[in-house]
Amino acid sequence: MRYLPKSDSERREMLAAIGIDSIEQLYSHLPEQAVLHRPLAIEPGKSEYEIVDYFKKMGERCATGYPSFLGAGSYTHFRPVMCDVVASRGEFLTSYTPYQAEMAQGTLTTIFEFQTMLCQLTGMDVANASMYDGSTGIPEAAMMAMRITGRHKVLVSRAVHPEYRQVLLTYAKYQGVPVVEFGYETATGQADLADLEAKLDNATACVIIQSPNFFGCIEKWKDIAAVTHSKGALLVYSFAEAASLGILEPPRDADIVVGELQSFAHPPSYGGPYSGIIATKEKFVRQIPGRLVGETKDADGRRAFCLTLSTREQHIRREKATSNICTNQALIALMGTVFMSIYGKEGLRELAQQNLSKAHYLAKGLKPRFSAPFFNEFVVAAGDKSAADVNAALLEKKIIGGLDLGRFYPELAGCMLLCATEVSRREHMDAVKQAFV
Fold first, then answer.
1. What are φ and ψ of residue 182, in 5° steps?
2. Which of 243, 304, 319, 396 is most buried, by the most CB atoms less than 10 A from its CB?
3. 99 phi, psi to nearest 5 deg
4. C-alpha to C-alpha distance for 435 and 432, rounded to whole angstroms
5. DSSP β-bridge partners for residue 293
6. What is the pLDDT of residue 101?
7. Helix, strand, coil fractions of the chain, as percent rounded to 5
8. pLDDT tens per residue across span 391-428
9. Phi and psi torsions of 291, nearest 5°
10. Residue 219: which of 204, 242, 243, 238 has the closest Cα?
11. In order of start, what are the domains of the chain with their CATH numbers?
């Protein structure tokens, strides 16, 4: 209690105000094993700065700063210092939302640039001001497709990120929307077109794929688009690794593009907060969730920006809202905007090429489980060793290994998903290869 600036009498007064007699009563709703009934195991007489130093030293014993080959939807990339410099400015850090255009031109400008660059990257006509993250973008895209088509069935590839599919199922469960999964080819790791065609019917609103998919494989999305459109359904193209957009062909044949922008200036950060995107064709703009910033002119004829479209409950009648929960991650999206501005077209392409080259160097000498082309991650069988054994051996060398795919795909038990990015070093990649020997 010595570091909490309240006296015993003040604590008793606070407890009495809420109708209880002791600290123990305050914690009575917690499981017994979660309550510590002893002082912290810290030497007495320590000052605050000594306590901070103690925890810093303890933190050094953890895996912080270890080279990592764990991707699976969260990627370690270099973050230019300028991203934090801009995002930490008071004008952006303390702003809430740009409703009053004359007071928020800076925020509106950055959102407009964000939307513009995402349209260039995805090949779509319009992008919104960002989403919570990539996982929530997928169900929002599915509901958008249902509004457009008037249909209520969703097909999703099993090669889409498992946690993204879990979020989709949560949304769908309480709206009575049937979600049907179709498989992947065991040889290539790509979506199984035959299984898709067998499950696709006139009730299908959309088909959801991911490319690169969860296994790192590049999907044949043009073929999937042709099959999907033959039944009048929409194709939702998702991505978890934004760096791939620097080298892969934009998915222009898709109807809706959703994705995760974490790779652009945000660290893995224990899973969030991240920034999602959703982009679409101009003819579907009225059904896009969230809000859009548009360009206009002020009373003096100068270039200016304003909220052009806001289809959330805060702005229009609930029954006409495209979503009642979606919003944008303005500050994280701003970091992504600065990141894209710093790298530019050529820089993003070079970034993607480095990821591609390093992943293929890592794969050389190993035996990838799937034959499809991959970007910066791939599946490899652990062989005679288990995935846990390989990761344990790497951790002894202060290296974080890959993801044991048996966690999400029982049929792939013994296989690992490995990722290499531009920050991966040759000596660490060689150590990973050695761990499989």
1. -120, 155
2. 243
3. -75, -40
4. 5
5. 307
6. 72
7. 40, 15, 40
8. 999 999 999 999 999 999 999 999 999 999 999 999 99
9. -145, 160
10. 238
11. 8-53 (no CATH), 81-339 (3.40.640.10), 345-435 (3.90.1150.10)
